[in-house]
What we know:
A seven-stranded mixed beta sheet has the order 1-2-3-4-5-7-6, with helices on both faces. β4, α5 and β5 (120-126) form a beta-alpha-beta unit. α1 (14-31) packs antiparallel against α3. The two termini are 26 Å apart. The longest helix is centred in the first third of the chain and has 18 residues, at 14-31. The chain is built from six helices and seven strands, in the order βααααβββαβαββ. By secondary structure, the chain is of the alpha+beta class.
Amino acid sequence: MNSMELQFKLIKGDKDIAELRKLAIQIWNVHYPPIIGQKQVNYMLDQMYSFESLKEQIFVNKNIITGAYLDGIMAGYISYSKTGPQDFFIHKLYVNTEIHRKGIGKSLFDHIFDDIDFRTIRLTVNRLNILAVNFYFRLGFKIEKTIDIDIGEGFWMNDFVMLLQK
């Protein structure tokens, strides 16, 4: 995909947050039920993608969320924060499942990190999310360690911590 077709916009306003939330619900309900089950999908969407939670992530936690727009419609998004002078953590990187493998995820990543002098970028990804794990491998990430996080209500995140170092 030619990055000229994509436009990038910082997510800040209520309308942008509502659009992101709608896309996230669509993506999660298609992609994650086979991996973690619909009950955990519903729980995690309530925890991480409620309107209030997204506003808190942006305005309290200072996560930077950027949307990628294709023909004026949000096609994907990335959320990250700075964890040190040259260290970053990617909280979210998702693309509409109907348009995977068109370069949108890589374009989002490049848009953010091409001009940043980073030392490390970390993220977590479900160990069974093979498509995402392979995507991150293609970007140069390595598996740093495995973690299991109790997120409440009997649900667990069984993740890889992946690391990209310069």
